[in-house]
Amino acid sequence: MTGTRLLVAGVGNIFLADDAFGPEVIRALEGRPLPAEVRVRDFGIRGLDLAYELLDGYDTAVLVDAAVRGHRPGTLSLIEPELPAGGEGAAPPEAHGMDPAKVLALAAHLGDEPLPRVLVLACEPELLPSGDEDITPGISTTVRDAVGRAVEALHTVIPALLADPTATPPLSRPDESTDPSTAGLPLSVAGGAEDR
Q1: Does the reported pTM lie above 0.85?
Q2: Centroid of chain to Cα 76
Q3: Are 151 and 194 in contact (CB under 8 A)?
Q4: Which of left, alpha, beta for 135 (phi over 0: left; psi -120 to 50: alpha)?
Q5: How far apart are CA 44 and CA 173, in angstroms?
Q6: Under a CB-based contact definition with an 8 Å cutoff, are residues 22 and 65 in contact?
Q7: To the nearest whole percent, how much of the chain has pLDDT over 70?
Q8: Alpha helical stretches, state H, the chain
Q9: Which of 2, 77, 127, 165 has its CA 20 to 30 A from that of 36?
């Protein structure tokens, strides 16, 4: 386990209903901290900060986020997005948004070294604001229940990744469909998942 650098990053907008899943999980980890060698940070909607953090020599980064994948609300999935190649054409970060695919593209564009391996611990949202709602604070009961399960999942996944950063540990009940086609990120591998 020595020498492995791991990042756990909560992403999402706390004012957009279930999009606050990532920040809520990071806050819940304060009561059940991960091992000291793991950097845990809530990035909220600060995509540029996350892009630069990904360039800081981590072996693996686990993004915690809400993602519409077509499953039952509250479903947790561990997925591995396909990382973009560096080079020209990276989309500029959004000042008030966090699109993980754009953040990964920006980090690939900014850095000279390869990006760390990236996994996403995703939760299927139940409540998202409609197009005419600007602010919808508070997450649904279903996703609130998933926060505790996500903390448990991280306490299973993180020790396995510290022991072997190339491992793809399953969540506790790998019974979700592994079809990655509805994810918000381009995916190369779908891992195990926990269906609520």
Answers
A1: no
A2: 11
A3: no
A4: beta
A5: 28
A6: yes
A7: 76
A8: 21-28, 47-53, 100-110, 141-163
A9: 77
The span from the CA of 22 to the CA of 29, in Å, is 11
Establish how many alpha carbons lie within 13 A of residue 89's alpha carbon, considering only the half-sphere containing its beta carbon.
4
The string of pLDDT tens digits covering residues 132-173 is 667 777 899 999 999 999 999 999 999 999 999 888 887 754
Task: List 189's β-bridge partners, or say none.
Answer: 80
Q: Record the tokens describing residue 158, joined without a space.
A: 């993180």
What contacts 24+ positions apart, CB below 8 Å, involve 175-179? 176/71, 176/75, 176/77, 177/71
Q: Return the closest-CA partner of residue 156 out of 143, 175, 169, 174.
A: 169
Give ∠ CA 35-194-2 in degrees, rounded to 5: 20
φ, ψ dihedrals at 63, nearest 5°: -90, 135
Three-state secondary structure of 57-93: CCCEEEEEEECCCCCCCCCEEEEEECCCCCCCCCCCC
Token output for 52: 């630069």
